[in-house]
């Protein structure tokens, strides 16, 4: 009898959050809680600077989920604003937040940086 491995609870969480993100429209998505929840997978790196996120880690899996939502200009602007909110709240950790997508090899279509003006994102 072949046993199949059940999905990890982390995968279920990512799928649930992806569903929440994708079902939200840009107009009513002022709440960036889902993005914040996904980025919370990177808490150790954001707060302490280690371990570096690597592809396949829960942090990079979360960034990959976020990256799947950056498929239009409006969504990239919305994501950018969410990241700027995170940086404003966690100002002392702005550099760590800014490097997440690069460490994970995720292209968001904009630079996560405290100086980024989200209004100019294409």
From TrEMBL:
Tell me which Gene Ontology terms the entry assigns under biological process: lipid transport
Q: Which family does it belong to?
A: Belongs to the plant LTP family.
Pfam families associated with the record? LTP_2
What's the domain of life for this entry?
Eukaryota
The species this protein was found in: Capsella rubella
Among the GO molecular function terms of this UniProt record, one is: lipid binding
Span of domain Bifunctional inhibitor/plant lipid transfer protein/seed storage helical: 17-106
* Signal sequence interval, chain numbering: 1-24
- The protein, known as: Bifunctional inhibitor/plant lipid transfer protein/seed storage helical domain-containing protein
Arranged from A to Z, the UniProt key words for this protein are:
Signal
InterPro entries in the record: Bifun_inhib/LTP/seed_sf (IPR036312), Bifunc_inhib/LTP/seed_store (IPR016140), Plant_nsLTP (IPR000528)
